[in-house]
Amino acid sequence: MPSGFPESSVQSAAGNTALPGDTETFWALHGLVDHLGDGVTYAGYTTPPGGSGPVAWQMGLSSAGLAQIDFAEAAGSLAALGHPVRLQLLQAIYEGTSTVAELGKDDRFGTSGQIYHHVHALAGAGWLESARRGHWRVPAQRVVPLLTLVLIGTH
């Protein structure tokens, strides 16, 4: 785990809290508990390398809200990310490459037909949108969720 990114997984015992007492290190976790009680949240504020300005996003649900989710509903969105080439395409587009012609210059992505196949699968799942004819971008509301999933997958 890189420095600056503490990790804690504490199981609560009957009647004991699992919330770490270190409010300096676990400021986000304490904010979650203060705001939602128990639940899960993710948030971010970043300026994508290929973007024109910062993007801010947060999502949080209490445990009661989470209990209402059918996990299977996430399958389509997550499946679209389940291919290494699609993740590489998303990274390239996130970093500022926006057209299939530009993406086609990189041998990792295959033929233009293969690139279009992947781009359309990602767009169908909401991970890409057409910025203008022939140009693709990661929608602002998907930047932080995408980066969160990449962080989860790499840490």
From TrEMBL:
It comes from the Bacteria. InterPro entries: ArsR-like_HTH (IPR011991), WH-like_DNA-bd_sf (IPR036388), WH_DNA-bd_sf (IPR036390). This is Helix-turn-helix domain-containing protein. It comes from Brevibacterium permense. The lineage of its organism: Bacteria, Bacillati, Actinomycetota, Actinomycetes, Micrococcales.
